[in-house]
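Re-running the complex after MR caught last week's input typo. The corrected sequence lines follow. Everything else is unchanged.
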Amino acid sequence: MLVIGGGGAGVTAAISASTEGAQVLVVNQGPVARTGLTMMLGGGISVVGGQKDPRDSVDLHFRDMVERGYYLGDQNLVEALTREAPERVLDLERYGAKLLPLNWYTGKNVEPGQSYGHTFSRGYYLLGSSMMKVLRKELLRRPEITLLEDHFIFTLLSSKDGITGALGLDMRSGQYVVIRSAAVILATGGAGEVFSFTTNAPQKISGHARGTGYALALRAGAKLVDMEMTQFYPATPVWPPAIWGIHVGVLEDIVSNAGAKILNARGEEFLQKPFVRDVTARRIHQEIKEGRGTRAGGVVVDITKSPMPAEEYSRVIRDGVPAYKQYKNLGVDITKEPFEAAPSFHFQVGGVWINERGESSVPGLFAAGEVSGNTHGANRLAGDAVPELLVFGTRAGQNAAKRSFKEKALEPERQQIEQEVEKVERLFQTKKDSIRPHEILSRLSDTMYAHVGVSRNARGITKAAEEIEQLANALGRIHVCDSKIYNLGLIEAKEVELMIDTAKAIAASALIRQESRGVHFREDYPVTDYTNWTKHVVLEQADEKLKSTLEPVVLTKLKPPKGD
Amino acid sequence: MAANRFELKVLRFDPFSDLKPYYKLYEINSQGPLSLLMALEHIYESLDDTLAFRRYCCGTSRCNSCLMQVNGKKIRACSMLVEGGKVLVVEPLKGYRVIKDLVVEFGDEKEES
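Corrected-run output:
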């Protein structure tokens, strides 16, 4: 069986599949543990365990996720996640991870209700980079798992009966690779770079959060759900330029603990406490949009004058702001000078529809982690991404393994492969009005950030959709150098082609949902309509056209409120 | 902010088409100091799209994808600030098989933090 993506979800899936006795092939765009978004995680893992209030329970975590997901999360998935996550996190410890309680650096419990949306502070602290090192080590221990790094998948292969495999490129040799498999797990992570400002692409480089997985799924016929649910982090540095896009990590903490002030360009405070992430992101966005932002396009974050005692202040900054050291490496000391920040895309809440077994709507195609879409609902609570990748990575791995024992891998269709290869070869041909892939990418991400971002309306989304259509028409003009080995332009060209499909899905869904809920805000429909809109916006693609339906949310234990 | 002009002498090698490695000089102008990684990205986007380097990085000195040699010393490109007036010799990390230009095969070696 095949796992596409070697981040937290993909490696977890491979490990659990190998435990079942399956032969597993894992492909990753770069080296495992040095690539992807999991290794960038700042440390918080929300489960009932570790730092735990005696009043806390799995039921309460379930309730928090459902309520703060605005009743859009499928409750069968939330039940599985909250119930199994505590044990799955301990798997990491068994593989050699050193778990600390969540509040290890402050030593105190925050007030109930102040913990980023959770009723109680709950869980552990483990840096994403440490988690990935441990997972990588475990993966390499398992003889059933073969790892192919520096491999980029640019299409899934399927027949009318389901998945048959995948087609991609070995970046080290430039050779095309065809993988036959009856069970494929998509664990390709999030979609940050579809927006021009994202924590997923610090320092303006990256390329490992381009949202290609959603497009792969769509093209294979899989349902996407609630793609309009795009979570923005309220404030990420835009100035000084050297720290552009480097996630500050704990904005709420440095505002409450270190007395940080957030000011517009006139030096005025404009935010209401308490800090609710989506509301804060919108207020900051509004301030910038209405002309009270700085020249760099941000608001001012000033932590230079803290009322805290100096020693405590240093400790909070040193241990609580994961990027502080990196900022200093780049010549910026945020304890001595204010920086400027703007809302940045942070996490794709919607995505590929899955059931509790991690199965998508296409036989043989599974999905796990951020690429899946119906667990968090309309908003993801801090620290809930790791439980998601652990629980559903495990479930997808187990079920894909079972399928791989039963189903024979069919011969992929030659025609589909030849067509895709021809499309790639055309990129090398000279054209008279040729463009580089990043020219399309930057226009795509600019329009998505401006019109399908923190705050939306019908006119803006429609404008973005028209622009995306124009960019799709420009794909044929892309020209890349014909290097065989590690050709960044070639990979980028394929990424951009897939990102256009992902962007179309986000824009289409944002237009369909005529209400505001969680991270999706419509200026023209600012109220949450529980009566009519507690439904999933579901997209499917057939013959390159997007088809949408509204489907009910799976409700098990909690009923949504009635009325507006 | 002061204009920032510097030069990068990058060791290029494409095993498919080059007989041996050679240095290529790039002149970069930027608005202010930026990291070496951002400078490489700038080269790829605006000056030379044949340049290969590991882009899929954390930007925060944790993933070690951007390890390379600058003026003979092992550094992380994401945390190295490049300021005006400098000429830097940029080479792939020593001791690893070069896939192309600045991209090496890390294997399972443990990196020093």
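None of the earlier attempt is carried over here. Residues 488-512 of chain A form the longest helix (25 residues). The mean pLDDT of chain A is 93.
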